[in-house]
Amino acid sequence: MQVLLRLACFIVLMMSPLKADQCHESEDQVVSIFAANEIFARLCNARLKDKNTTIWYKNDSKTRVSMEVDSRIHQFEDKLWFVPGKVEDSGQYYCIERNSTYCLKQKITVKFVKNEPNLCYNSEALFPQRLFIGQNGLLACPTLDLFKDENNEFPRIQWYKDCKPLFLDNIRHIGEADKLFIMNVTKEHKGRYSCRTSYVYLGKQHHISRVIDLTPAKKTANQHREPVIMKPANETLEVELGSYTQLICNVTGLANAYWSWNGSNIDENDTALVEDFITVKNHHTNTRILIVMLNISQVESKFYLYPFVCEAANWFGKSAAYVQLIHPVRDFQSYIIGIFSILTVVIMCSIFIYKIFKVDIVLWYRDCCYDFFPAEASDGKIYDAYILYPKTVEKESASNSDIFVFKILPEVLEKQCGYSLFIYGRDDYVGEDIVEVMDEHIKKSRRLIIILVRDTLGFSFLGDTSEEQIAMYNALIHNGIKVILLELEKIQDYEKMSESIKFIKQKQKTIRWSGDFTEKSQSAKTRFWKNVRYYMPAQKKAPSSSHLRSRALNWNSTELFEREVHVPLG
Amino acid sequence: MDIFRCTLCRLISLLLLLFHSETACRPTRGRRHSMGTFRIWDVNQKVFYLSHKQLVAGYLQAANANLEEKVEVMPAESNSVFLGLHSGKLWLSCVKSGDKVRLQLEEVDITDLGRNKEQAKRFTFLHSQNGPTTSFESAANPGWYLCTESEGDKPVSFTNKPKDTTKITQFYFEGQQ
């Protein structure tokens, strides 16, 4: 029985180291890259608590690293030493840390590199370090912790920048322990800083160097300051009650932003107010814009009471901006603009219509409203118009102008419209001096109607007759009488006309006769007669049919009388 | 039929692509959202990295730059933040057990946690600006500051003696735009 017990104990004793060898394996992700031909030491760093022992193994994980300190690669205490490290030493090493209950096996990778040609370092071994431009800061010569002396102090360090010795003036560059203090960092500080020292190990001095890649970091404007809310800008927003609205908050810089209302944040379970956000990166300016949206599914009346506040914060500060919802104000401005636009259109149309139908409108107005005209004092004129017309030389056949003057004109203006005309050759008395008659009768006329015909047949037109001159004189100089130019035919060339006709022609347009010269009855409602009536003075009384008839009778009697008068003198 | 399939596939992939690009920049809805990712290093130029599930501070060479931990900063209350790692999967917390105050990395949904003030307290750090550097005091354990050791490759921890020269409590931050 005792034998069995001893056997069991022996088996347990035999098994225990085997059990301990069932280590939890891991790999140190950090690859150590250091200069060859320099002393190098490192810890296992498997981070086992209460560790008792550390054992180092070579890359086969079985062969133990020598414990002889004379050996170039050896284990001393719990560290792995390379005295010095060679390029060929690069590779994997294993360390096992044990405590009473646990065992950790870790694979580590070490790489030794030679300096690059014409450089005092190898770029593979760079330690990047960053400082902010405009600030004071320090560079640390890394991983020298194992090379402190017995007083726990770092060996003396020389600093180099881009392989040139760095002068430590104790003002801008200060060297202290394993640190290089740099005052007021500028862009020019960018570069490769080497720190070099030596370490006496087992009575022999060995070199140590590290290389740092310093990047002076620029503090971008929006990185190191409080967030900037670009939108909203403490504004009001017109919103209809019950409508859907989205409020947008735009924030630049690294910040958090959210909406709040009435002093509290938007509840995530609130269905009426839903907050959402996106971040947009502006690649050109390399800035981030945070857009926080607040969707209001239905604007409630309480939402008008307090503003919605967008708050943005980062650790440099806070910003806030609000949107106050307001009931929409009726837009009077647009109403006014609308009314003015309509008015303008109406006025433009009216002007346009008036331009086209001016004559009709005026005549209609005269017809309709004549009764309301105030009774005017007599102007002392007898005739409404004096008719000035070319006198034909040939007397055999009545010319068109004669037909027009003696037949058509009186027919319409006198019989139909009720005007009184003075027509020389009809209304004058035989033997009267023509110039005196004209002068006298033109003065008594309200209008001077000048009949224009083409001067093709060679007959003498108004030309230079004294009658015309008197008429013109009265029309133009006295200006008391208005002239109406009637073209019986199209007259292309006014050059042959007298200066006064040309002058009047420039001042006003002519009315061209468009009908024929037959003696059939004319209607005062044609365009030509409307135009003539337009230029004629307003009638005292629109002739009613009965009135017309009586006038016609009067005129007929006058004609008869005149004819009677003419006969004995002719 | 093949042509139809091809077009359909293209359409689907196009839709997925569009949807992806839209959702990529839309984290889960919540009032709190990250201030962004920041590069953090102490005034002695040590950066953070994870070693055996511990947050440590040390000098990392350019070859190991991928191991550097960047910090996700999420505002908590006014003047205080949550500090996250791994794009906000792990969050730094300050836990006191006995006399010891230690740093924990916890896998939590911080936006969910944010609502419960008591729960969120150990994750909350009051930040104070000191020129170009920032320090973080635990909200759960006032007087205890996030710190690194003056030696490299040592765990990030807390100290209640921020003026102790062997502890570094001042950190540089640089936003990753």
TrEMBL record, chain A:
Keywords: Receptor. This is Interleukin-1 receptor type 1 isoform X1.
TrEMBL record, chain B:
It comes from the Eukaryota. It is found in: Secreted. Transmembrane segments: none annotated. Keywords: Disulfide bond, Glycoprotein, Receptor, Secreted, Signal. The keyword Phosphoprotein does not apply. Residues 1-25 form the signal peptide. It holds the Pfam family IL1. The keyword Disulfide bond applies. Belongs to the IL-1 family. Anti-inflammatory antagonist of interleukin-1 family of proinflammatory cytokines such as interleukin-1beta/IL1B and interleukin-1alpha/IL1A. Protects from immune dysregulation and uncontrolled systemic inflammation triggered by IL1 for a range of innate stimulatory agents such as pathogens. This is Interleukin-1.
